[in-house]
Design goal:
24% strand, Fructose-1,6-Bisphosphatase, Chain A, domain 1, globular, alpha+beta
Length: 288
Amino acid sequence: MVDLLLDTEIRRIIRACGQHAKYLATQRFDVSEKGPDDFVTSVDQALDRKLTEQFTTLFPQDYIVSEENPTSRPHFQQDQRLWCIDPLDGTKDFIQGDRNYSVLVGVLEKNAGSPGSAMPSAGWIYAPEYDLMYHSTPESGIWRTQGDADPKLLNPVASSRFDRPKVMIGEIDFANFGSALSQAIPEIEFVRAPGSFGLKVVSAALGEADLYVYFNKRVKVWDTVASIAIAQAAGLVCCDLEGQPISYASDQINLETLAHHQSIVIGWASYVELLLPRLRSAMLSAAP
């Protein structure tokens, strides 16, 4: 587990890098394309190097996997604690001047005696434009820190809007599956928020949506580890369309890209129980 005495230093490092990203957003930066609709900037790359350097210094006994360092990806298969870093979650939004990007840092605990039992244990999600951080460890619950103020412990609770549940969905998934989902579950209200995967999960944890669904299977471990750690600390269920927990076993991850094979559903247990069978049925009907 993460030593709680180090939490202040971890937050300092993440905030400093995030604020540097906010400054660099006002300057000229380079943009290139890693793949179809998958962008990277010189800001991503600079922050990736800085975060990797500082977390390596802070935790020399651990492994690090970061989005912009492909040579770090084989570390995912090591049976040792892993720090998963996304220096800019929501790069496209950063490029477009949208405020909803974030810095993600999460801890994936490995159990050498039980392959496939890896699980997120701590996470930090920082939104530089709002100078706002959400963070959690199993011992501490979920906290919110504004600027350099003292952290405040949150007590998230589920809503009671069962007649009109709010489902958060990304633009790609809405374009591909929104029609089928609306026909199958006409009472749901879609929340189509832009930006960071991590910030969407935070929105669900804060009750701004009852479920967050992600079906296009492009999300990577550096997006999900911090996000799922915080979701679980808030009391949310994190599963796939079959109701199985999100797994970090090697057969559930593309070991080249570190993308999840599973679809992802994150939300309050009562809404997962209510909507999951209908979501699954709708997605089966929408399959080509």
